[in-house]
Amino acid sequence: MMLGSALRLWSASAWFAAVVFCGCGSGSSSAWDWSSELRRPDGTNLEFPSRPDKPVLLLFFASWASPCVPMLDALSLFGGRARVVAVSCDTEPAKLLNRDRVEVAVSPGMSVARRFGVTVLPTVVLLDRLGQQVGRFEGYSPSVCSVLGVRLDSLNASP
């Protein structure tokens, strides 16, 4: 019953975020096969090494979706601990938001969002260094940052 006691201590949103981040599974068939579909706003490819030196956070967002802006700001704080890539789901690249320590990308035809099964904005997908999805959070909640921080510490500590 120790787990039940611990869950009662968390708020409902923190518990939800923890459950989502513990639930693993990949929406992509191969580790980095989708990465060639991401472009910078200037049209150049966004490169992903086969084994990055830190985890990758993909934030699927749109500038018109009000919960995406605070999520974008919150994830910029993790720029030193993860590669943070904000994948715009806007139809016009001119509406892209710039943040320090966040790379902005577009996915023509939203193909990367479809590969990861994104149906809610914002959606955060956490990838380990092998490109495997190890966490996911849909919607915005300030509590996701604490859960995400713990997951990033764990991923960065592993070889």
Report mean pLDDT, rounded to a whole number.
78
Bulk shape: globular
Rg, Å, rounded: 15 Å
Beta-strand segment tally: 5
Put the structure in a nutshell:
With 159 residues, the protein is α/β, with parallel strands linked by helices. It has five helices and five strands.
Core attributes:
159 residues; alpha/beta; five-stranded mixed sheet; 5 helices; 30% helix; globular
What report would you give on this structure?
- 30% of the residues lie in helices and 17% in strands.
- The protein is an alpha/beta fold.
- Strands 3-2-1-4-5 form a 5-stranded mixed sheet.
- It is built from 5 helices and 5 strands.
Topology (SSEs and partners):
Elements: H1 2-9, H2 12-22, E1 56-61, H3 68-76, E2 83-88, E3 103-106, H4 111-115, E4 123-127, E5 133-138, H5 144-157
